[in-house]
Amino acid sequence: MTQAAHAAPDLAPPPTLEVRGGRKNFGAVHALRGVDLVARAGEVTALVGDNGAGKSTMIKCVAGIYPFDAGEVLFEGEATHISSPADANALGVEVVYQDLALCDNLDIVHNMFLGRELKKGFRLDESAMETRAAEVLASLSVRTVRSIRQHVASLSGGQRQTVAIARAVLWNSKLVILDEPTAALGVAQTEQVLQLVRRLADAGLAVVLVSHNMNDVFEVADSINVLYLGQTAAQVRTKDTSRTEVIELITSGSAGMAPGAVAPKISPDAPERATSATATTSDATTTNGSTSA
Ligand SMILES: Nc1ncnc2c1ncn2[C@@H]1O[C@H](COP(=O)(O)OP(=O)(O)OP(=O)(O)O)[C@@H](O)[C@H]1O
Ligand SMILES: [Mg+2]
């Protein structure tokens, strides 16, 4: 039971993931200058922003590849430090990277269990892995692969994405982060992957979807988090916003949002963000950037 649940048992459960004021520097490069994110179970949270806004850095920090230099991370309401991929996996965080990291010369089952193979004595437990892989694919209503013993090299882009997503949900995950899962896909395959993304959330997982594609975002996301020059410009409910407003947030860091969701313009060269103006108590929250420049 979390502190938040003790304090207010009648409120909604805490978000699966909450990042408050996350910062990350690479030497002199301030890649993240104050990012806030709320990802709830049962919801797809889109993470959007222009090239270089900090999306990949943010998910790598959550995945423990580069720990945040500063800021707070709460997982299911509990403050936590994710300082390695093993920490992230132990919490139930799985990331599907854009390059997928699948092995072409292995079949679907072996790819799904790559690095975490099931063993029986000294041998691989092929039948247990096959059964489990088939169960997970069936639970995700994946019907487009002919055989789970098919080599991944023979799969289409959408099918490869499906295998990578299924691999992520195989490990009792609670939070699945997908980096541009539809970037290289055609229309029909994009639709299949988006349906799969939706099913992950409907199955109770928290899903973070990194995307440049507004069609995808508005089709599948419950909530949209916009990064602008390493800062969170706003996180808004999809039903309360519009494409025009989200695009404005992406390009300028501010927009004439719905009442209660106004994000003042963030100065591109603002060195610091005004922490007093930060509030991340709900996912209809905006984060103000410093305008001191
Ligand atoms: N390992 C690194 N070393 C130095 N700078 C980095 C490193 N990784 C990212 N950056 C810088 O951090 C900033 C954010 O990069 P990031 O890759 O997170 O952006 P992004 O939002 O994912 O962009 P895109 O949409 O192009 O994928 C950029 O200015 C980038 O050059
Ligand atoms: Mg990126």
From TrEMBL:
Residues 274-293 have a biased composition (Low complexity). SUPFAM superfamilies: P-loop containing nucleoside triphosphate hydrolases. This is D-xylose transport system ATP-binding protein. Residues 257-293 are annotated as: Disordered. GO terms for molecular function: ATP binding. The keyword Transmembrane helix does not apply. It holds the Pfam family ABC_tran. Keywords: ATP-binding, Nucleotide-binding. PROSITE patterns: ABC_TRANSPORTER_2 (PS50893). Residues 17-254 form the ABC transporter domain.
